[in-house]
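Reviewer has doubts. Consider these tokens.
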Amino acid sequence: MKTLNALIGATALAALSLFSASAGAAGYPERQITMVVPFAAGGPTDTVARLVAESMSKDLGQQIVVENVGGAGGTLGAGRVAKAQADGYTILLHHIGMATSATLYRKLAYDTLKDFDYVGLVTDVPMTIVARKDMEATDLKGLVDYAKANKDKVTVANAGIGAASHLCGMLFMSSIQTPLVTVPYKGTGPAMTDLLGGQVDIMCDQTTNTTKQIQGGTIKAYAVTSAERLDVLKDLPTVKEAGMPDMSVGIWHGVYVPKGTPKEATEKLTKSLKVALKDQNVAARFAELGTKPSSDSDATPEALKAKLEGEIARWKPVIQAAGQYAD
């Protein structure tokens, strides 16, 4: 009898918990939401996150506060969200590193495909291949020839292992089949500062970080990795036009929540993301940075899940060939 009573009690408690979670999700959001950005403030991903968070806050009627949890190529911030309470009040905005970290890091505190649910894709930012202002090469073919002829001394800067610039740098070396001297920094800012000062030779980074410098003539640009030329950089050829179609790549961003987040909460976040991506201010600011908001069909859990799975498969051989792993 005691066993039966205990079983009934446990069942009732479980049902009550399920009802409470469902009721809470129905009124979601009832308080402030934290959007974790796994990189330093002021960087390209942080810029995207703050624009989207501001617009989503207006739509949801609750503030979304961006919290920068940098370190370990974005894995510290992602790990924090993976272990957060699955209630919709802690969300993650991450870029392509969400996919590459699955191979890049030998030990992760989370399972990339099992510990998250999906909200939707945000944007796909093109990359630019740039160099110090006084680089001898005048076009991409010349840059490749120069890099191959001086492979032991040509330096390729990046913002740290797992950063977009690191990934693009690996792809560049893979495309030209030549290993170069990689120089990692603790963030995009220091890497760009040394490129501007001529202390390093080459960098491949997002338009959100390079457009102003290219327009100002403080660095030399060779190509953009998008399929078409950008309105803000009309004179810059695409990698395909410049003879390197294998370098076609974008740094896509997506929003995630911890696994098990109530469906009602995830659906509200997806709906709000779509509203934000149609915000004229967001679209205008994205355009200034050389990118554009994701479409309605891409700003969905299904599209983000498919993108993540496909990108893990795409980048695995590139990372393995480069042999640049992190513990």
Notes: The radius of gyration is 22 Å. The domain at 126-247 is CATH 3.40.190.10 (D-Maltodextrin-Binding Protein; domain 2). The chain has two domains: 31-125+251-322, 126-247.
